[in-house]
Structures are given as C-alpha cells and as structure tokens.
Amino acid sequence: MSAVSAHSPSARFPHVLLRERCRAAFFAAIAALFLAGPTLVACGVSPESEAQPTQTTAAALIIPDLVGMDGKEAAEALERAGFIERPTFADIDGEETVIILENWSVREQNPAAGTTATADQVITLTVNHDAADAAASASASAAAAAEAEASASAAASASAAAAEKAAQEETARQAEQATQEAAQAEQAAPAPAPLMPQQDTSAYYQNCSEARAAGAAPIYAGEPGYRSALDRDNDGIACE
User: What's the longest Cα–Cα distance across the chain?
Assistant: First the structure.
C-alpha cells in the first residue's frame, strides 16, 4: 500500500478524516438496528419492552370495620379480607398485655376502616379488656347491693325502735289518762248521804203529850221514842 501523500486532504486536515469515520460508524449502526428490528418483533420482543424493567404493583385491599368486634373476630375478618400479617393489639388503658383475644373488644383501629392498604400492612387495634370490666362491674354491683341491704336493715331497725318507743309512749299516755279520769270521776262523785240513826223502838210515845208526860220531850233523832211522825218539821227534833 502506498503511503498517503502529504498533499492529500486527509493528511492536511486530520479532523475531517475523524468526522467521516464517525459518520460511517453511525450509519452502520442505524442499518444494523433496522435489520434486527423485524427479527425481534417476530420473536415477540419489542425493543421498548426489552429496554424497560418489569414492575409489579401490589394489590390494594380495603380495610374492614373492626370496631365492636372481639380480638379474635377482628383478626379473622382481616384474614378474610386478604391481609397476611397478624394485627397488633394495644390495651386502651396501657396497663395489660393482650393474651386471650376473645376477652378484648376493639375500640379503635389504625388505619381506619374503608381505607386501602397492601396485604402485608400491619393493622393496629386498640382494645378494651371486657372481662376485667365485667369483673369490676360485678364487684361494684355486689358492693352496692350489700350497702343497700345494710341501709335497709338499719332503716328497719330504726323503724322498729321508733315503733316500740311510740307504743311505750302511747301505753304510758293511756295509763296517765286513765289515772286522771279516775281522779276526776272521784272528785265529781256525789257525797254519800249521811246515815240515819236507827230509831230505838224500846220506847214508844203515841203523841208528844205522852212524851212530855214521860219527861222525854224534846226527843232527838236517835234517842229512844223518836220517830218521824212526832217530828213535824223533819229537823231531827221531835216534840219541840
């Protein structure tokens, strides 16, 4: 091969030669891509699909309403809805650890019902210990019943004592009234009539003349010979 003449355009302008070579390579690449295109389409692969990575989007699930269910029912409802993660449980009072799910009821949930989440979303449930509340309520009811019974017993005792005191006071009042009435009746009773002296029947005078003749006149009541027939004015003195 003969050497390139120093007077040729390529020797004098090397950048022109480089540009021509780049242009030739560019057109060669375009031609190769044009020829390979039908082959890729025939195989079911397009250049665009081969160039882009495949992206998989997880399905969004609707979170069911769990408020009011017990812990076990809530977990089963989430499983039926398609969630694969077990929910977390938190005591609403922050005092106890949730162990027996049936003894707890859901008061709040996060995320809220009706929102969407992926299947691996962990749902947080705030729960209340119903068994503990029931025991506390039963204890309070028993205490209230005992207190009410004690109050009723005390009231009954007080009522019985008051009734007994009232009965005693009434008995005393009636006795005093009877005493007063007896005293008043005794004061109001008429004085007994004086006893009339018994007449001595050993002496008998037909009239006052005989009494005077016998020296017995005047004859006083109770003396021998006194009789009412001789006492004209009934003053207790006969044959005055």
Answer: 234
> Contact, 205 vs 211, CB < 8 A?
yes
Domain ranges in the chain with CATH number 3.30.10.20: 60-133
Band (pLDDT 50/70/90 cuts) for residue 186 is confident
Instruction: Compute, in degrees rounded to 10, the torsion defined by CA atoms 127, 133, 135, 138.
Output: -150
In this prediction the pTM is 0.37
Cα separation of the two ends of the chain: 222
pLDDT tens digits, one per residue of 76-112:
999 999 999 999 999 999 999 999 999 999 999 999 9
CA distance 189 to 5: 186
Residue 92 is classified by DSSP as: T
- Kindly report the CATH class assigned to 60-133: alpha beta
Residue by residue, DSSP assigns 13-30 as -HHHHHHHHHHHHHHHHH
> In DSSP terms, which residues pair with 237 in a beta bridge?
220
